[in-house]
Amino acid sequence: MCKRNDGVKSQLKWDGLAENILAMFPQIHTEMYNKALQAREDHMSNVDNWDDFMAALAKRNICMAPWCDNQECEVEVKERSKEESLEKMAA
User: Fold this and answer.
1) Model confidence pLDDT, tens digit, residues 51-66
2) What pLDDT, in 10s, does the model give residues 4-53?
3) Beta bridge partners of 63
4) Is the Cβ–Cβ distance between 61 and 42 less than 8 Å?
5) Domain assignments of the chain as residue spans, ordered by start
6) Cα separations (Å) of 68 from 61, 65, 72, 76?
7) Which residues contact 59 (CB under 8 A, 6 or more apart)?
8) pLDDT at position 40, please?
9) Could you tell me where the DSSP H helices lie in the chain?
10) Rounded distance, CA 39 to CA 37, Å?
11) How many angstroms separate the CA atoms of 71 and 39, rounded?
12) Which residues contact 29 (CB under 8 A, 6 or more apart)?
């Protein structure tokens, strides 16, 4: 048997094969969840200025930035970051 989530191979006896595989599901779920959680944590950046925000975006990170609770600010940030990203790609 080979687990697809981590490539670990093992041998199981035919007797009780289904039960053994079913018993592994919670462990596989936990392993997959922890891997996804770690990937998210590795790609999350706390930013508090524009340069750090753009640098984090360039690395395709999730940016945790202060929020003024104003929809217009969000629209402005999206437009400005889009424009600057396109300028850097063209350069």
Assistant:
1) 999 999 999 999 999 9
2) 999 999 999 999 999 999 999 999 999 999 999 999 999 999 999 999 99
3) 45
4) no
5) 1-42, 45-91
6) 21, 10, 10, 12
7) 43, 45
8) 96
9) 17-42, 50-58, 71-90
10) 5
11) 29
12) none
> Other CB atoms closer than 10 Å to residue 56's CB: what's the count?
19
Tokens at 2, concatenated: 């080979």
**What is the torsion angle, in degrees rounded to the nearest 10, for the CA atoms of residue 54, residue 86, residue 83 and residue 87?**
90
Q: Which two tokens stand for residue 76?
A: 């402005």
Farthest-apart Cα atoms in the chain, separation: 63
Q: pTM of the prediction?
A: 0.67
Q: How many residues does the chain have?
A: 91
